[in-house]
From TrEMBL:
Protein name in UniProt: Small conductance mechanosensitive channel
InterPro entries recorded: LSM_dom_sf (IPR010920), MS_channel_C (IPR049278), MscS_beta-dom_sf (IPR023408), MscS_channel_2nd (IPR006685), MscS_channel_C_sf (IPR011066), MscS_channel_TM-2 (IPR011014), YbiO_bact (IPR045276)
Family the entry assigns: Belongs to the MscS (TC 1.A.23) family.
Residue spans crossing the bilayer: 33-51, 79-98, 104-124
Listed GO MF terms: mechanosensitive monoatomic ion channel activity
Keyword list, A-Z: Cell membrane, Membrane, Transmembrane, Transmembrane helix
A Pfam family: MS_channel_2nd
């Protein structure tokens, strides 16, 4: 009997709770606010899923094709997909916030004065953020670099440029993967200078030191032959856009003369081509009998005489003179 009365009392209190002010507010407004928040989160996840699907599809097209490097349009499409998803999520949450204020019946006119104060505060405190967003907008629209590009970015506070492969570009930051595997996150507003090392095509530069005693005419003949045969090399045939060119004498030092050879390559392949070209040049110079500067005169190691031995030798010489 007591348990029946207790259950009836709890049921009446529970029924009365939903008829009270808090219960009515939860049913009338709280549920709608909760549904808006849940729907916004689900929509944001869906937008991110679509963006990732688009980028994976673009990357799969490159992986399945016979292209050695990504095309400029593919790089730009991946960057644009990332930016559009970021903007869509931001606009989505702004719309959800506006809907929540409408449900709460907050008058927009009463928010004008606080919004002006907050806007002025943000204008002073968020200058860096606005600068990052504007810089990111121009990076994307001007196609300065995109996903997969090899870049060197001069950042204002750093003495050395940040070098690496672009893995993500948004309106606010650029993420690079360095050659050591480190992930560098750089705000776009702090980028002072952009050097794209894989835009349309690249150039491999090979400096070749030879001794001053070498016959430069013979050296030029050997290097011209290397340049003509490089286009047929199995490792270089698909990476070179045209045959390498010998530029001639680049500088003269005390015991060496530096010659320069350049080769136009596919974007981002200049380092691989440069390493292979150096191997071919060294091999050809050795076959031609042209030694490297360090091999011209082998070092001579002599023993330093002991002072006592020197004194005895001088004494013997004086006695023989007598």
């Amino acid at each position: 009997m007591n348990s029946t009365l207790l259950a009836f009392d709890l049921a009446s209190h529970w029924h009365g709770f939903w008829r009270g002010d808090i219960g009515v507010w939860i049913l009338d407004r709280g549920v709608r606010i909760g549904l808006l928040l849940i729907g916004g989160l689900l929509a944001a996840r869906f937008i991110n899923w679509i963006a990732q699907r688009v980028t994976r599809r673009i990357d799969a097209e490159y992986q399945e094709s016979d292209q050695l490097v990504r095309s400029e349009s593919a790089k730009h499409r991946q960057a644009v997909a990332s930016v559009i998803s970021w903007l869509a999520v931001a606009l989505l949450f702004v719309m959800v916030a506006v809907q929540i204020t409408d449900i709460l019946a907050i008058p927009i006119g009463s928010l004008v004065a606080p919004a002006a104060v907050i806007g002025a505060a943000l204008g002073f405190g968020a200058q860096r953020l606005v600068q990052d967003l504007l810089a990111g907008f121009f990076i994307i629209t001007e196609k300065q670099y995109g996903f997969g590009d090899l870049v060197a970015l001069n950042v204002g506070a750093l003495a050395q440029p940040a070098e690496g492969t672009v893995e993500d570009v948004t309106l606010r930051v650029t993420r690079l993967r360095s050659s050591e595997g480190e992930m560098l996150t750089i705000p776009n507003g702090q980028i002072m200078k952009t050097v794209n090392l894989s835009k349309d095509w690249a150039r491999a530069v090979i400096d070749i030191p030879v001794p001053t005693s070498a016959d430069l005419n013979a050296v030029n003949d050997v290097l011209h032959e290397v340049a003509q045969k490089a286009i047929d090399d199995p490792q270089l045939h698909d990476l070179l856009l045209d045959a390498p060119q010998l530029m001639g004498v680049e500088s003269i030092e005390l015991d060496t003369v530096n010659l320069r050879m350049v080769a136009r390559t596919l974007p981002g392949k200049q380092f691989e081509v440069g390493r292979r070209m150096r191997v071919l040049v060294i091999r050809a110079l050795r076959v031609a009998g042209i030694v490297a500067p360090g091999e011209m005169a082998p070092p001579v190691v002599a023993a330093i005489p002991h002072p006592a031995t020197t004194m005895d030798a001088d004494k013997d010489a004086r006695e023989q003179d007598k």
